């Protein structure tokens, strides 16, 4: 699993690239990647997957991997990544909400609390 870092350089979640799932620090499944979109397990569209990072509904950077580049924001020093958690059983994927129009990429960090 790959660490997903927030605007402070702290590990905020983990990405399982094989299963296209995002888990929190305790191993609970919180979202999944479907193509270029990120959905939570209630089926709501919560962001956009772009070249190793997530952008929110406004196009601002939410979370990113250590290998992401060209974000348009300055990445902070990365904190030490702890060992990935054991993943809980994945819930069934819900019916997905309609995907909204994708916004232009913003050169700012997301203010959405889910990406903190």
Structure description:
This protein is mainly beta and 116 residues long. It has one domain. The protein has strands at residues 2-5, 11-16, 21-23, 29-34, 37-40, 45-50, 53-55, 61-64. Strand 4 and strand 5 (37-40) form a beta hairpin. The protein is globular, with a radius of gyration of 13 Å.
Features of the shown structure:
116 residues; mainly beta; eight-stranded antiparallel β-sheet
Total E-strand runs: 8
Strand content: 25-35%
- H/E element order: EEEEEEEE
Radius of gyration: 13 Å
Number of domains: 1
Strand order of the largest sheet: 1-2-3-4-5-6-7-8
Mean pLDDT: 89
Computed structural class: mainly beta
Distance between the ends = 19 Å
Largest sheet: 8 strands, antiparallel
Short description:
This protein has strands at residues 2-5, 11-16, 21-23, 29-34, 37-40, 45-50, 53-55, 61-64. It is mainly β.
Task: Summarize the helices and strands and which ones pair or pack.
Layout: E1 2-5, E2 11-16, E3 21-23, E4 29-34, E5 37-40, E6 45-50, E7 53-55, E8 61-64
Antiparallel strand pairs: 1-2, 2-3, 3-4, 4-5, 5-6, 6-7, 7-8
